[in-house]
Structure formats: structure tokens, C-alpha cells
Amino acid sequence: MPKGDFLGEFEILVLAAIERLGDDDAYGVTIRAEIESRTARAASIGAVYATLGRLERKGFVRFRISDPEPVRGGRARKYAAITAPGRRAMRLSTRALERMLDGLELGLRPGRQR
Amino acid sequence: MPKGDFLGEFEILVLAAIERLGDDDAYGVTIRAEIESRTARAASIGAVYATLGRLERKGFVRFRISDPEPVRGGRARKYAAITAPGRRAMRLSTRALERMLDGLELGLRPGRQR
DNA sequence: GGCGATTTCTTCTCTTTTGTATAACAAAGC
DNA sequence: GCTTTGTTATACAAAAGAGAAGAAATCGCC
After folding, report:
1. What's the helix, strand, coil split of chain A in %, to 5?
2. Among A6, A104, A109, whose Cβ lies nearest the Cβ of B98?
3. pTM (predicted TM-score)
4. H helix or E strand, kind and range, residue B63
5. CA atoms B88, B53, A90, A79: torsion sign
6. Which of A38, A42, A106 sits opposite B3 (nearest CB)?
7. Residue A3: which pLDDT band, with cuts at 50, 70 and 90?
């Protein structure tokens, strides 16, 4: 049995960032910033784009090219949006984590259980 | 800036399984079973051992060899236990996920968010 | 108004780390 | 010596990560 549609850790972070930002604000630079500011973990811009590419290949994300912004260096952006299968994969993966971590002190949402 | 002590997806699952099982029950076979039953995702035995080895090299897990069980084929087992740094890495990684997923419908614990 | 400097973004290239599968090996009791 | 329970070894594929290079836009300046 193959692994299936389970996502890697960074893939989950990228998808979550897109969801937080919303389709009208999620692109390479903002996605990276969202991850770094929320998690205090480094995320190189190369890693972000590589992951976006992988997610697109799997059909979990789709892009839309914007018109160039009329500002210095404001070139076209590739805005990302999560697809239905992407949402499904996201749920699948977070559920798995949730079930494994639920109830552990070192798990999710410490202090909020029960 | 390097990535740091953040764990991969499967590493989190393995560590969580060890924690759930407790130091006196966590070894290759039971860890695998715990992951498969809780997450409905396949986990080959080879993947489990490889990951345990990596976690040991990083100092996140330590082993203790049991005496052979007095049953058919009951050979010595390598029981795994999480170390203090392992616990810290676990918290670091789950917090990151938590912060990214908190509040999203497709995030952790759907239906439980306020 | 032409054009190089500068800014913002994306691509490309390379390497390392993780994740997976399967087969081989080991040690116990029957 | 066969069967059972476990661990190791091997080989590879996929994911993650860093940083430099490339593209497209505006700005400033002469």
C-alpha cells in the first residue's frame, strides 16, 4: 500500500498559509512571511516555491497570474489557491496528526484539552 | 539560517506513537501498529525502523534492549523512549503546526473551535 | 526619452534529509 | 530444522532546503 495523499510537514504549512492569507493575497513572498512570522521557523523562498510546484503537480493548488502592480519592481505574481482535492488532503493529514497527538501533553493545544 | 530541530511528518507520528504506548511497550512492531490503527495510513515496518534510527542519531530517542520473551520467536526487543531534547523538538514542531492551523476550518480538531 | 540601477518576484540548480519497500538476517521455541 | 517474532541492510524515491540566476517592472538622471 502506497503512502497515499498524505502531505509532508512543510506542505501542510504552505497550504495553511494560503488558507490564512486568502486567494487574493497568497503568493510566494507572502506565504513565506506568513510561515516565518507564525512559526518562528526559517522558510527559504526556494523551499516555498518548490513546494508550491509540487502541490500544483499533485493538483492540490492552482495558480492565477496577476497583472503587474504599478509600483517599483511590481511584476506579475502567481497567486495560489487551494483546490478541492487539496482541501481533502489537508483534512486527511491534519486528522492523522490530530488522532496521534490528541491527549498528549506534548501534543497540540497544550492546556486546552478537556 | 538552517532549519533547526523541526521534525518531519513521519517523525512526529513515530514520536507520538512512542509517547502513547509508553516506554514499556514501544518498539518497532507496536509503534507501527499504533500508527496504522490510529491514522488509517500505511506505515511499512522498514520506514518505522529507519525513522527510529534517525531519531536516535539526533538524540531524540534512546533505546533499551529487553530480555527475550519466553515465547515462540520471542526475541529481544529494542524499546524506545523519548529524550528531553526529543520532547522539546516535538513541542516545537507541534506548536508550529498548531499556530498555522489554528482557526482554520480544515485545521485541527474541526468542530471544536470556538 | 533612453538606459542602467534597483526592486520585486519567480526559476533553476544542487544537496541533504526524510520517507518507503522489500529482502536478508538473527534468535527464540516447538 | 521449521516457524515465529524482531531487527538490519539495501536501495531508491520524494520532500525539503539554500542560494544564485533570471525576468519584468519602475525610477532617476543625464
Report:
1. 50, 10, 40
2. A109
3. 0.90
4. strand B61-65
5. positive
6. A42
7. low
Q: For residues A34 and B101, what is the distance between their CA atoms, to the nearest angstrom?
A: 12
Query: For residue A35, which of A15, A54, A61, A50 has the smallest C-alpha distance?
Result: A15
- In one-letter notation, the amino acid at residue A106 is L
The model's confidence at residue B70, banded by pLDDT at 50, 70 and 90, is: confident
> How many other C-beta atoms lie within 10 A of the C-beta of residue A103?
12
Task: Tell me which of A114 and B71 has the higher pLDDT.
Answer: B71
Check if the beta carbon of residue A89 is closer than 8 Å to that of residue A6.
yes
Please answer whether residues A20 and B58 qualify as being in contact, where contact means their C-beta atoms are separated by less than 8 angstroms: no
Is the CB atom of residue A32 positioned under 7 angstroms from any atom of strand C?
no
Give residues with Cβ within 8 angstroms of A3, minimum separation 6. B41, B42
Give the H or E element holding residue A63: strand A61-65
